[in-house]
Amino acid sequence: MASSTRRLDQLAASVSSSAAILGEYLESRNLPQPSVNVGGLAGYSGLPPDISTARRSLQESVLELAYLASGPQEYMIRYTTEYVGITALRWIYHFRIFEHVPLDGVVSYKELAKLAGQDERTLKRIVRRAILNRFFIEPRPGYIAHTSSTALLLKDSDVRDMVGLMIEEGFDSSTRYSEAYEKWGPSNSATETAFQLAFQTDLKYFDWLEQRPENLRRFGGMMKAHGTNESYSSENFVKVFNWSLIGEGKVVDIGGGLGHMSIAIAKEFPNIKFVVQDFPDTAKQGAERCSEELRDRISFEGYDFFNPQPVEGADIYMLKAVLHDHPDPDVEKIIRNTVTAMRPGSRILIIDGVLPEPGAMHPVEERAVRSLDLQMGMFFNAGERDPEQWCSVIANSDPRLKVKSINRVPGNVSSGIEVVFEP
Ligand SMILES: C[S@@+](CC[C@H](N)C(=O)[O-])C[C@H]1O[C@@H](n2cnc3c(N)ncnc32)[C@H](O)[C@@H]1O
After folding, report:
1. pLDDT category, 127, cuts 50, 70, 90?
2. 158 C-beta closer than 6 A to ligand 1
3. Which positions are tagged coiled coil (predicted)?
């Protein structure tokens, strides 16, 4: 049979073949099939590259198919009213509705409203809209149950933190982005952002977080949840650098949060030692959460990277998901503060998004890196950088620094930028 030239048919065929590849792989590994219901596959991790590619093409073909099946006008109506879906999820998060739905059964709206202490009619209109985004299901009229995603809200505090931060701090900031630009233009200041307008503060985002222990804790959970997603996974990021090069060396994980990246490297390279640096409260949390067997190799310390680096002569100074939070002048300060502690041959390893030429990355990953770029714009007037912008900000920081390689593992959103100190 001649292959169809109709785009709808091509996409449908691509969906069908990619879905078969993915489903057969899961079956061959005795893994559960993905399902909207509780009890399906929990998530994707460690997929071989060809299976990962099939999953990505499935996601992208489905999106284009939905676009074509909607037509441009209906597509725009649906797209521009999707904020309602966020509003519904935010209400569910805010009033902790998911906590009162059993994981292995159903609850009536009446009972749920009573348990959550909320108005039944409001609850029903919110949940029935959320159901259309696969948050909860109504298996029989008047009774609701968890889906695999709302079950995660209940079971996984890090995912809950990620959702909360995105739909509160993230969403509110996003609504003020145009106004912030109108007021300050393409500013290089981290105190002239959409975030400051949305939250009516003069503080930089991280200083604001420092004053709010619950928000700071939630930020740590959000980063941890990201670190377990295939595209942002710390385990995949380990592969951006040949760690065996440093033998029994020392890594300083600057702005390392709760230490997820150091932990992932430490598990694979048992001879490397780590110092994870962050704000004192975050460092304290990291130390408390660090497992017993890694404590002799990973230490946590409070350090503000706008001061000179106290740990001298380490092999690697790692900055993962740190520099994209800062406009160029601040990045230059952070790098200069690091150089003061480096010895010849020491490296800075930056792990961050590197903006691709349009179309050079798979669209699923390109969307993720461009979304991150805009998010960093909303919170910090910072963002991801393209290779040229990275090289220029590094050279402006200190001409003795040489960019040796930029390496991305396919499937990852971020790349490793290896910079050597050659005085
Ligand atoms: C986006 S998070 C990345 C955390 C970690 N590197 C990771 O990838 O999971 C940025 C981190 O930088 C820390 N940070 C922000 N400003 C800092 C400063 N002035 N000194 C030290 N750490 C800071 C934040 O507390 C946060 O943990």
Report:
1. very high
2. no
3. none
Neighbours of 88 (CB within 10 A): 21
274 lines ligand 1 (CB under 6 A): no
Tell me, yes or no, if 326 is annotated catalytic. Answer: no
Identify which of 365, 364, 351 has the alpha carbon closest to the alpha carbon of residue 418. Answer: 351
Residues 6+ apart with CB under 8 A from 292: none
**Residue 40 covered by a domain:** yes
At residue 41 the predicted structure's pLDDT band, cuts being 50, 70 and 90, is confident
**Which residue's alpha carbon is at the smallest distance from atom 4 of ligand 1?**
257
Domain end point (choices 106, 136, 154): 154
- How far away, in angstroms, is 224 Cα from ligand 1 center? 12
Residues 63-83: pLDDT tens digits?
A: 999 999 999 999 999 999 999
Per the structure, the count of domains in the chain is 4
Quote the distance between the C-alpha of residue 144 and its chain's center.
30
Ligand 1 centre distance from Cα of residue 209 (Å): 11
2 pLDDT band, cuts 50/70/90, is: low
- Residue 234 predicted with pLDDT over 80: no
- Verify that 255 and 295 share a domain, yes or no: yes
Q: Which domain holds residue 60?
A: 7-76
